[in-house]
Every structure is written in C-alpha cells, then in structure tokens.
C-alpha cells in the first residue's frame, strides 16, 4: 500500500526575531502570505551570507504515514512539532527535503489559522470548504453537522473576530473534522477548549482514525496520545529521536526526562496555575528518604507532594490528584482526607500536602499525575494542572514482588501484593472415589 504521507529529509531553518504581518482583508492576507514566502526565501540566502543568527527548527526528518494510521507527535517545547505540522499543512515551505501527500488535508493548528476574522462563522465555513476544493453543494450537505458540533448557532452570522478563543476553536475543529479530508492534522490548540469539548473532539478524532483517515496529532497530553494513537514519533531539538508503538515511545519520552518530570515549580505567582483564591507553586515526586526521583521501585512507597499558596482566607480547599498510566487509563483519583482540613476554611499561607502511595500497589510503567485543588460544596476547581509530574514504576525480577518469578508482560493498571491463604488436606482423593 502506498503511504498517504511520505516525508524525506525535511529540514527547516528560521531567522531569529522575524515577524509576520497582521491581516487586513482576505485579498491582502493571501497576497501578503505569498509575498512573505518569497521574501523569506530571498532573505534567507542574504542572512546566511551576512551571518545573521538562524535556528534549525527541523533537521533531516523522515517518516511515512499509512492510510488509517493515527500518529502522535510528541516532544518538549521547541522540539519542532508545530513546525512539522505547518510544513505538512503547506503553511510554510521546508528549507530542504521533500514531502509527498496523497489526499486532501484538514488542519487545525493555532487559533486563527484558516479563518479570516472579518468574515462571519457562516462565511468562514464556506471559505474553508472552497479552499479544500469542495463544491458549495458539498459544504451545504455538511453545514448543519458542523454548526451542531461547534455549538455556535447563535453566533453563526457574527464576525469570528468577536468570538472567544473557545468558540473559535470549536468552529475550527468542526470544520476541519467534518469536511472529510483524507488527512486530519491537529495541534495542541485543543487545549483552549473546555473539558467537555476536548472529550468531544477526541471522540471525533478516534472515529476519524477508525474510518480509514490518517490523523496526525500533536499534544503534551500523554493520556490523549496513548488513547488515540497506535504509533508515536518523538522529536527533540528538531530531530526525529524515536518512531514506533505509542506506549513504547511515550515511555521513552517520560523516562528520558523530555516530557513531564518528577518535579515542577512555578516561581512567579502571577503565572502560577490557579486563581485569586489559591495558586499552585510546586509538585514533586518524593521517595521515602525525601529525595526527588523519576523512577521508583514497585515495592516502595512513593509520595506526591503539592505545594500551594492560599491567597484569600475562608475557603474549604481539597488538594487532589489524578493518576493516569501510559495507556491513558485513569488508574485512580485521590483527595486529601486529612480530618484537620476536611471541613475547615484555610487561612492564607503556604501549604505542602503529600499523598503517600504504598508499595506493591501501582503497576509497572509510567504514571502521569494531574494536580488540582478544589472546593467540594459547591464543586469548583481552582486549578487543575493536567500533567504536573510523571514517574516510572520499575518492577523487580528477583521474586519478591507481585509478579513473582513470572518475567513476561503483566497487564493491569495496578499490581497489588495480595494476601493469599491456602487450605491443604493430605491424601489422594482421586483413588478414594
């Protein structure tokens, strides 16, 4: 079978400090885009000769994507993920290498891509359809489904420049997914939407993959990557580091400290997750001796430490954690049940709450921890850092963990060391019948 996407030796160089022009009209936006591309190509040669500082966002990246594959592209910030998607979407040209694409592409990259702010939602739906080469009748047939999915009926004839970021993303995703492209390309932009719409988008992407369309998905949300994708590509500093089964590549990403690590801190209170009531300052993975570690023995307790600052007194606050394994399955949730604080408003100040997970409970593999502080009555989430920290549980092969002497694959989200009892009666009961 011929690959639907074939990438050979793609590299992309940027000049540091370059800027893009703002939009005015549709005609001017399209004209400016063409002129900017030509100017960039001409300017690149001059800059290289003059010694102007440049950076390679991608360097010699090669891979193929087959029809029906759902491929996750992961890597830390600045790894080159978004640049790769822009090249695949033909928003920017590669500096070197070539790409062969066999099919229509639907892209949702950053907020603002593909729509013109002066046009209404209705007009942008038809504009995107025409850009994809669809006849008006084809867009008409899908129009109601797009509007229903986006949930923007009341604002359909409002210029999209007046939309909130969430409304913008809902419409953009609905258009990209319902125009039935052979290739669907989605960037981290889904993080702008609310939790309910994110789930709706993920379900739609999963359905698209099962229908035979190729999907490329960039995200820092490892549970979403492992749920949707069968394969992952890992980028670091513009280079392709690994390409293979999604669980293996995600584990490599986390173990190498390239993704979420065992400790994160927020120094500037203005940029900490949270609100005017409480803000998150740090989350750490602690071992029994107080150290911070990304790797823990399956038999040993591990503590998840949350440091947060209460800015406004008088609120009953509950720290809580969400634990996901590297298959995207929620293993369990845990909330602080310390009787001292369960029904007690907290005074302003700095708090450090640690939840200890006993040894011989977690399964082997990577655990991703989401950290939150909530009020339970009424329910309000003050912050939820979805991938605050991660750590890797390592099982023992010396016979005294739950796996015993078995060295093969051991499935499950937990691996408890259960208490076994055995009753034995001596005798050969088969001969007494």
Summarize the structure.
The protein is an alpha/beta fold.
Descriptive terms for the model:
alpha/beta, six-stranded mixed beta sheet, five-stranded mixed beta sheet, globular
Structural class by sheet pairing and helices: alpha/beta
Shape: globular
How many runs of DSSP E, i.e. beta strands?
A: 18
Q: What does the largest sheet look like?
A: 6 strands, mixed
Q: Secondary-structure element order, as H and E?
A: EHEEHEEHHHEHEHEEHEEEEEEEEE
Tell me roughly what share of residues is in helical segments: 10-25%
Question: Could you explain how this protein is built, in words?
Answer:
The chain is an alpha/beta fold. It contains eight helices and 18 strands. The strands form four sheets. A six-stranded mixed β-sheet has the order 5-6-7-3-8-9, sandwiched between helices. The protein has a five-stranded mixed β-sheet with strand order 12-18-17-14-15. The chain has a four-stranded antiparallel β-sheet with strand order 10-11-13-16, with no helix packed on it. The protein is globular. Residues 20-31 and 44-49 have low confidence and may be disordered.
């Amino acid at each position: 079978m011929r690959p639907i996407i074939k990438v050979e030796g793609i590299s992309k160089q940027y000049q540091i400090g370059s800027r893009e022009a703002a939009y005015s009209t549709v005609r001017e936006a399209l004209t400016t885009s063409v002129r900017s591309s030509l100017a960039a190509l001409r300017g690149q040669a001059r800059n290289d000769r003059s010694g102007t500082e440049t950076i390679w966002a991608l360097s010699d990246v090669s891979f193929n994507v087959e029809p029906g594959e759902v491929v996750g592209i992961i890597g830390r910030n600045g790894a080159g993920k978004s640049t790769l998607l822009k090249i695949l979407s033909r928003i920017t040209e590669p500096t070197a290498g070539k790409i062969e694409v066999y099919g229509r592409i639907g892209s949702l990259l950053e907020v603002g891509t593909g729509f013109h702010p002066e046009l209404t939602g209705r007009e942008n739906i038809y504009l995107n359809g025409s850009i994809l080469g669809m006849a008006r009748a084809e867009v008409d047939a899908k129009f109601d489904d797009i509007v229903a999915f986006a949930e923007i009926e009341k604002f359909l004839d409002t210029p999209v420049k007046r939309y909130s970021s969430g409304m913008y993303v809902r419409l953009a995703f609905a258009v990209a997914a319902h125009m039935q492209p052979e290739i669907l390309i989605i960037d981290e932009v889904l993080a702008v939407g609310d939790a309910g719409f994110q789930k709706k988008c993920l379900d739609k992407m999963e359905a698209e993959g099962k229908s035979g369309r190729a999907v490329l998905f960039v995200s820092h949300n490892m549970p979403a990557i492992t749920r949707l994708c069968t394969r992952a590509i890992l980028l670091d500093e513009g280079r392709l580091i690994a390409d293979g089964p999604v669980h293996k590549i995600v584990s490599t990403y986390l173990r190498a400290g390239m993704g979420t690590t065992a400790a994160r801190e927020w120094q500037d209170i203005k940029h900490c997750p949270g609100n005017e009531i409480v803000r998150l300052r740090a989350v750490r993975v602690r071992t029994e001796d107080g150290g911070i570690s990304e790797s823990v023995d399956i038999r040993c307790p591990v503590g998840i430490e949350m440091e947060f600052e209460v800015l406004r007194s008088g609120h009953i606050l509950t720290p809580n954690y969400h634990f996901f394994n590297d298959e995207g399955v929620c293993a369990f949730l845990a909330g602080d049940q310390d009787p001292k604080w369960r029904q007690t408003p907290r005074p302003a100040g700095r708090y450090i709450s640690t939840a200890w997970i006993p040894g011989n409970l977690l399964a082997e593999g990577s655990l991703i921890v989401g950290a939150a502080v909530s009020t339970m009555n009424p329910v309000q989430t003050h912050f939820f850092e979805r991938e605050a920290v991660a750590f890797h549980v390592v099982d023992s092969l010396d016979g005294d963990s739950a796996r015993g002497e078995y060295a093969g694959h051991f499935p499950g989200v937990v691996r408890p060391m259960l208490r076994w009892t055995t009753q034995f009666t001596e005798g050969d009961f088969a001969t007494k019948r």
